[in-house]
Amino acid sequence: MGILSKKDAALILDPLADNNPITIQVLGICSALAITAELEASIVMAVSVLFVMGMGNVVISLMRNIIPSKIRIIVQLVVVATLVIVVDQVLKAFAYELSKTLSVFVGLIITNCIIMGRFEAFALANGPKRSFLDGIGNAAGYGFILVVIGFFRELLGSGTLLGIKVLGDPIEKTGLYAFGYENNGFMLLSPMALIVVGIIIWVQRSRNPALIEEN
Amino acid sequence: MSFKNKLHEIKEQLKGKKVAPAFNALHTFLYTPNETTHSGGHVRVADDLKRTMNTVITALIPVLIFGMFNAGYQHYSAVDAANGTPRTLDILGNFLTFDNFWMGALTVLPLVVVSYGVGLAVEFVFAVIKGHEVEEGYLVTGMLVPLIVPVDTPLWMLAVAVVFGVVIGKEVFGGTGMNILNPALTIRAFLFFAYPTWMSGDKVWVHEAVERAGTVDAISGETILGYLAQGRGSEYSYSISEMFFGFIPGSVGETSTFLILLGGLFLVFTKIASWRIMLSAILGALTMGLIFNGVVDAGWITESSKFYGLMSFAFWQHLIVGGLAFGIVYMATDPVTGSQTNKGKWYYGFFIGFISVLIRVFNPAYPEGVFLAILLMNVFAPTIDHYVVQGNIKKRLKRAKNGVLKTLNVETV
Q: Where are chain A's structural domains?
């Protein structure tokens, strides 16, 4: 990365793997369980959070010297709420069906711990450029896990990807279904999403034992 | 040189190599290892993990064989019923026949083979990765699994479920002895949530019923609980003794309460399973059944209610239908996932029976809840033990304190 210094690049790359908000910090689990039954919803959620976090971190960072520290949480909430409403309205205008699938979870981006966490931990103490990179990096780390979960849950649970029947038609018994294959209904339930998150955490930590916490 | 000595020698050669755990597993399965401890005082006992497991398997074999006969019997009697000539049970005449056994063996044995094959393969893989000895933990699980699934469960589904159950239910927690949930029930729960159409309804309990559905040869066999849940309790014609001895549709090994009872007594006699858990679970189920019967008798629920059928079912009959007896005897008593303290076992068992009947009545999708109740109590077992231990500590502290005061009083007097 020629444009970014090594330190800045780390802001984006670290949250993707070794400091991932979901698998390492175990934040933002609610939405990771709730909306990942379909890949499309996962992608839209990931993009929405990317937008909210990138913009939010920049706004907070620009205002960091004029926010009185006593009311900083309120200010952060106002900023994130504004951005979430923008996302919500855009989705309702251009992707109505999808916004119904995501339902309350778009609004609940406000309570996503990752966002408030990055505002508090990073944007309040760093300049807008670095804050922007940090926001993008963390949102991408979150979105990456969301897409992975969504991929497996939709593929194994519904036999589709982005709505396309990749495994054949379960009713007309084509493709894999001709051999007696059936969709795994458990994949569509939230507990299985948690188990998938657990498996990702397991794989990641056994590949890099340095990530395992001391007891 | 005998084969046994040869194996001992090969073991020495393989020491430290990757394949050692796999070989050792096979070796200790066939023969007692030739290693002995040389230092310190040791208590010598004859029962090890493997013998414990084998005792449970012995207790399961009558159930398995009966399950084979019953699988055939249910199939042929459903065919007869569909042809308009319903069978009446004649134990020597049309139950203990070679046809029944053969049909049952052909459907049940593949389940056993897949269960053991896949489960032990997973154990081997993990033993090699982790570099420890293969654990015998799967021996009982592998036998339990075919007994608690419907006879026509597709083999690939069973294989997927076994991999899930052994890996997520056991290996992630550290393997045999470390698991929180009973692996066999984890497998059952996975199948139930993943492929509900193969686990419930009136088609899955009889061999070939699913394939024949919709054709002129259609056959079916609803479980007694299934009838009751649909408010059709008057339609089944099974007598109490048929329910008790197990000539009814159901999962492969769960139907014969009589044989399960014998197995249970055998396990209690050999001190493998806890009689406290079994007894308290029975009491729990009876209590909940009585409460429901009381609700019906008091007239708090009308006959049109969808819970009426199961609520009005005589409380003690809950014990002889469905998987309750099997669950109580073989699953609830799992020493790893159950409560460890004697007092805790009473609470643990009681709630298993109590919640089983509760779920059985109120589960809208599936009139059975034993496996869910046991899994739930598996999760709570450590908590129960914790409070029992804490209670004991408190009691003894109090006693110690009072004792000190008394001696002080004596001295001052």
A: 22-151
